[in-house]
Amino acid sequence: MNIRSSLLASFSVIIVILVLVGALLMVLQNSIEQEYEMIATDTMSEYQLGEGASQLISTYTSLLQNINDPSLSAQYQNNLDAINVAASNLDGTTLSSASATIYQRLRSEIALLEGYIAHGVANAKQGDFSQSANIFEQVDNANNSIQQDTASLIVSDVGGMEETQGSVNTTEALERTIGIMMIIIVIGGIILLAFLLSNRLSRPIIRLAGIAETISEGGSLAARVDEKLMHMKNEVGSLARSFNHMVLDVEKRVDDRTRELQQERARLLASINSLPLGFLLLDTAGVVLIANSVAKENFTGQDLTLASIGNLFVPAMDATAFNDLMAKKQSYELQEAQLGEKSFRIMATPVLLSGSDEKDSLIGSVMLMEDITQEKMLERSKNTFLAIAAHEMRTPLTVIRGEAELMFDEPSVGLDTGLKAQIGSILNSAVRLLSIVNDFLDVQNLEGGRVSLNIEPVDAAGLMKDVIRDLSVLAEKKGLTITLDTSHDPEGFILNVDKGRLQQIYVNLISNAIHYTEHGGVAVFLKKESKVIKITFEDTGIGIDAEEQQRLFRKFETGRAFIQSREYGSGLGLYISRFLAHLMGGDIVLERSEPGKGSVFCLTLPLTGLPRGLGLKKP
Amino acid sequence: MDINQKPALILLVDDEADILSIYKAKLDKVGFRVITASDGAQAVQMAIDQHPDLILMDMKMPVMDGITAQSKLEENPVTKDIKVVFLTAFSDPMNPEIDERSAKENGAFDFIKKGIGLDELVEKVRGYLNMPNA
User: How far is B18 from chain A (nearest CA, A)?
Assistant: First the structure.
């Protein structure tokens, strides 16, 4: 039995007791009131009895003096009747033993009085008044006794009445108290009932709310409304059932979505793991969130953070530069870095999340590591092979060239024209081969930083004149002209450059122009432009189309058309020339070119000489 | 060239006999006196003994390489004024440290790339000896 039921039971018992007590009190009060009424009636009758006796005497007295007066006789009879009525009124009442004794005596005294008066009246009617004084004395005595007895009865009755009145007052006070108590208890009961009722209604709802809260705060969907609530027949029960149904449904949906997400994630991870690249997802603090198997293989036993893995590479990754680039939403690339025995190319791109405000926010970066060990080994062995081959060819070629030159020049041998031409052909081929070999070795040395520049003041125009003079023989053979315009150079530009290397550039650009021109010629202009000297080489040759222009300065590239049309050069000339121009602080660009109309190359070199720090490049 | 003056003496040093013979033939033909050596040690000895006007020397040779020989010549007061010009390929993948810079740093007067034309060689030699070109 719970508290609620005990409370209800006690409350009911108290109410019942109070009602019973109240009823008893009312019955009691009623009887007391009846008793009071009775006593009051008795008192009235006793008073009337006394009064009647007095009147009877006075009527008797009057009647004695005028015995024949009929009105007096009637009055006498009335008084007599009144006494008898009053006396009979007292007959039915329950009297105390004392009162009953007095009453008995009173009855006999009244009978005596009536007898005396009747005797006196009868004597008076006969005209005999001899006994009147005696009778009157007896009547008076009887009357006195009556008066005494009624008075004592009245006194006794009044006492009873007062007593009864006190009981009535007490009972009424009790009744009031009980009434107030009942009112209080009823109000309390109503409040209690209301509380119990509201509790009975609200408690399930509070429980429901608690479960809802558990779910929303705890994240677990396992919480359920209990059976008791579910089976409630009212709206709360229906709400509880709907709630459970909803939670079940939500749980199922969450399970489904979770499974889908897990599958999706597993698929993504599998894809990332199957990449032949190292894959790392980093957050903005540089902590690795996801690393695929290739990446993990290479960083066993390492903290996976940008700082710790970046330092494993040779050269190390510059974390600051990396973060700066990511912050600028740009890509990072490290062309080649060693990690133990392996070579990697490292690429990283910022990971951006599209925000609602159409601004992308940086949430991290993706870093890819491409294992280029094989590639690099291949490249190295290719370079080594070519270098060895070129190196080994140079001495025999030098010998061939030297011997051919000696034979070609020797008048004493007495060569016939045919043989001399053949020796000339050997000589030309040897020279061409040597120039290709030299170009290749030049590139090796330039790229390896094994070239030093012999910087000295050089007269740009003067050197150009020498080169043009040397190459004019070649031009004339093709019927071409080479012109030099130095009208924009009245004082003669002096450059701080390596003379031999500048000459190499001049020769390369002019001989290219001659080579690719059939009609017209080559025009060279020297012009000062702010802090640079600009040397323009303009030809009327076959020109270079847009696609070929893209590849022009690359290693081993000549325009494809040129390769197809004739044999010429190593394809390294422009690459070397530009490399040298860069070393001397200048540049070479193709200013414009149009197929069929010609090309304009432009060499710029700084007038102030070689910028500090360039030229001597440590390997 | 002064008739009474003896032609300039040139010491050619190379371990490649063919190269020696071609350069000697050309230089002989244009009137120089040419002596040859096939390694650095030999070259140093010949330089002390015969005091040539110019030494054209290969950099990489057996017994003693060109750079060592050049330092020895530099140390010796008898030979320290002799101009040394290196003949080099600057291209040996097995010896990448031998390059233009190392040659210059070792006090070579100049270097000539192997493979140049014989006329160009003569021209350069005349230049080193402060002789006008023919």
Answer: 6
Strands (E) located in A292-359: 332-339, 342-354
Which alpha helices (H) appear in A219-340, and where do they start and end?
Answer: 227-230, 235-274, 293-298, 306-310, 319-327
Contact between chains at B22 and A451 (C-beta distance less than 8 A): no
The ipTM assigned to this model is: 0.81
Question: What is the average per-residue pLDDT within A434-463?
Answer: 81
Q: Which of A384, A399, A431 shows the shortest C-beta gap to B93?
A: A384
A591: helix, strand or coil: strand
pLDDT for residue A141 is more than 80: yes
A391 burial level (CB within 10 Å; 0-12, 13-18, 19+): buried
Residue B96 with chain A: CB contacts under 8 Å: 448, 450, 619
pLDDT in tens, B68-82: 888 888 888 888 888
Residue showing tokens 């200048």: A586
Closest chain A CA to residue B20: A399
Nearest CA in chain B to A619: B97
Nearest residue on chain B to A451, alpha-carbon basis: B100
Residue B104 has pLDDT above 70, yes or no: no
Chain B residues whose CB is inside 8 A of the A437 CB are 115
Flag if B18 and A616 touch (Cβ within 8 Å).
no
Q: Which residues of chain B lie closer than 8 angstroms to A388, CB-CB?
A: 93-94
CB contact under 8 A, A450 and B101: yes
Nearest CA in chain B to A382: B93
Q: Are strands B83-88 and A332-339 parallel, antiparallel or unpaired?
A: unpaired
Verify whether the Cβ–Cβ distance A391 to B100 is below 8 Å: no
The sign of the dihedral angle between the CA atoms of A24, A28, A33, A34 is positive
User: What would the pLDDT profile of A550-569 be if each residue is shown by its tens digit?
Assistant: 777 776 654 444 444 444 56
Q: Name every chain A residue with its beta carbon within 8 A of the beta carbon of B94.
A: 388
Write out the DSSP string of B9-55. Answer: EEEEE-S-HHHHHHHHHHHHHTT-EEEEESSHHHHHHHHHHH--SEE
Question: Residue with structure tokens 């093709």?
Answer: A478
pLDDT tens by residue, B38-93:
988 899 999 999 999 999 988 878 888 888 888 888 888 888 888 888 887 655 55
pLDDT band at A152 (very low <50, low <70, confident <90, very high): confident
CB within 8 Å: B100 and A450: yes
Please report the DSSP string for B44-66 in residue order.
HHHHHHH--SEEEEESS-SSS-H
- The tokens for A327 are 């912050």
For B14, phi then psi, to 5°, come to -165, 145
Instruction: For residue A337, give every residue at least 6 positions away whose Cβ sits within 8 Å of its Cβ, in sequence order, or none.
Output: A313, A314, A315, A317, A343, A344, A345, A346
Strands B9-13 and A481-488, by their bridges, are unpaired
Q: How far apart are CA A21 and CA A24, in angstroms?
A: 5
Angle between helices A417-447 and A573-583 (to 10 degrees): 50
Judged by CB atoms closer than 8 Å, whether chains meet at A388 and B94 is answered as: yes
Structure-model confidence comparison of residues A547 and A296, the more confident one: A296
Query: Is A444 in Cβ contact with B26 (below 8 Å)?
Result: no
Q: Are A515 and A487 in contact (CB under 8 A)?
A: no
Phi, psi of A572 (to 5 degrees): -110, -10
Q: Which two tokens stand for residue A516?
A: 């690719």
Cβ of A391 within 8 Å of Cβ of B89? The answer is yes
The pLDDT tens digits of the residues spanning A22-40 come to: 888 888 888 888 888 887 8
The predicted structure's pLDDT at residue A570: 62
The beta-carbon neighbor of A452 closest among B101, B114, B118 is B101
End-to-end CA distance of chain A: give it in Å, rounded.
Answer: 98
The number of residues in chain B equals 134
* Share of chain B residues as helix, strand and coil, in percent rounded to the nearest 5: 40, 20, 45
